[in-house]
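Why this split exists: single-chain examples teach little about how molecules sit against one another. For that reason, every record in the complexes split bundles all components of an assembly together and asks for one structure covering all of them. Below is a record exactly as it appears in the raw files.
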Amino acid sequence: METITIKDIARALNLSTSTVSRALRNSYEINTETKKLVMEYAEKMNYRPNPIALSLRDSKSKSIGVIIPEIANNFFSQLINGIESIAYNLGYHVVIFQSHESYEREVANTNYLVSRKVDGLLVSLSSLTTNLHHFEELMEKGLPIVFFDRVPNEIETHKVVADNFFGSYEATEHLIKTGRKRIAHITSPIYLSITTERLAGYKKALEDYGIAFDESYVKYCHHGGKLASENEAAMQELLDMAEPPDAIFPASDRLTTGCLAVLQKNNIRIPDDMAIVGFTNIGVAELLNPPLTAVVQPAMEMGQQAVELLIKLIEHPKKTIEYETKSFRTSLMIRESSTGKVHA
Amino acid sequence: METITIKDIARALNLSTSTVSRALRNSYEINTETKKLVMEYAEKMNYRPNPIALSLRDSKSKSIGVIIPEIANNFFSQLINGIESIAYNLGYHVVIFQSHESYEREVANTNYLVSRKVDGLLVSLSSLTTNLHHFEELMEKGLPIVFFDRVPNEIETHKVVADNFFGSYEATEHLIKTGRKRIAHITSPIYLSITTERLAGYKKALEDYGIAFDESYVKYCHHGGKLASENEAAMQELLDMAEPPDAIFPASDRLTTGCLAVLQKNNIRIPDDMAIVGFTNIGVAELLNPPLTAVVQPAMEMGQQAVELLIKLIEHPKKTIEYETKSFRTSLMIRESSTGKVHA
DNA sequence: TCCCCTCCCGGCAACGTTCCCGACAACGAT
DNA sequence: ATCGTTGTCGGGAACGTTGCCGGGAGGGGA
């Protein structure tokens, strides 16, 4: 691993390290020929500045940390693609951590990333996070943070979200218009921003169409791995009701597939006995049985927007900026799970 | 971002930095009381050693780089979960990069990770990589690399793979035993290890059951995004044959969903007109239409094994080790896409 | 001739940490 | 009293880079 340093170049060319450094940065106070000499030699020896030394010097790492609940989820992995494409072009390095829906791991990851001197953080909250102290502290210390998807109300900074109210309204409206009366909503814990927003859209649609809101048709579940049974239990409760729902609207990727599995296991015909519309970016929605109607978020664009805002924050820290919340429209992809056209 | 350093502690306690450093490392040559004093003060002030300074000092970063074709793929994201769980416990930090099936990006990512001084690399080759020079060079310089899934024959190091031959044999055998005669195989470019191994298993099963191998039933496609049309074209060629196949065996996640989409678009009944078995870790296989028979790889375990081997290599570099190739058995999950039982 | 200014370039410190090399006191042994 | 030992600690260098300061050579103007 003998990497060449500025010192090596200086020694080889009989110059000082300062001169070499400035020559490489194309400083005006270095003779043109000297610059050429240095740059050609550096090129020849394949010199690459040591980013660690640079980080130590001016405590900047040209890297940003991303904390998400989990990677194995289409919405988040698409979002990461968006983040990476932009960050890469702007010379930033992306470090990804998963909270696995655990508050403790979220805190641990945050601390780790900060000790690694990331220049900023991109965060989507874990479903078990109620205490935001670890982020508040960092923001007070001046570390730029941009939240996306699951964002905290209590913290003021840039945020990037989908128009959850609209997406949820549109989905619910669609179910109503296709004749459903008893629409259940399975969603995340109530202290998540996406939960309240989607719940609100759901309620508003019911209200606008004169359907009474029934709390017993709403179930709150965690997303996390071990808690998948929670999802199943909630579904079972719904199915066991005196008047079970005739449609279900799960509010996330994980919940959607969970619901589908339970319905399939109980041999419930979709959409005949139960319509379903998922708030999900799952890639194979049209290959499902039946093809799944879905509220799709522009995940890639959301990732791009988030990282752009973050980098703006990093590179212009002085500017006391108006923090903004970018909202992206979702799109409703109507398929058979909610309409029941042909059905192979 | 005023973080406390060893110097601050030294100044506050009227000691030298050396003493503080040794006290914190619990060195035997420091007075017990002094140690206690230092450690308590450090604890109180929430001192955390600066990993960047440490990296600079002994050019180790306690971090490992992962280069994979893409994250938005169940096999790889499960694998990453395995990698992270182990690495985290062993005090290593995981940096993930996607090659997006591009040779250029693979090289760029490799260089970047190396310049960031990762202690080792975990790599699954892009489908367009034929030149391995960038990895060979690093290995000569002493950087530990472990390959997984798509591994190069030409490089000697630890490797972690699925038993692709077996998985492919078993899938093909299953199709034969359920009465299929003309089994097509859609796979990756031939210079990928997984391609040749899976192809070999496929051929062997045909041979063992007395079915002649027909090259025109094998199609080679790239995985990458823009090249999805390639997959579609290959499928169409198969369907347009004089004697089209009665079963299809795609060799990866992406290819499997691609094939399913084409079949659906052409209104081909599965499994009546065409059976399908996918070499895929897709999470919703049983929710597909129809539920998909799949060769599943123990992705998480493979990730764990790979990172364990890598860290062993990193931490015991002197030991001239016998390089080993760990092979994991796949499991065949039989569902309706290949059997055609009930079919809602 | 003297002075000042411009053009180049080198020396040094600093970022945070550890390691090597000493230094000095106290103490027992000779 | 002298010497080596042990127990504690400090000083300095080093990792790679950049910024500040300073300095010499050469040229132009008074």
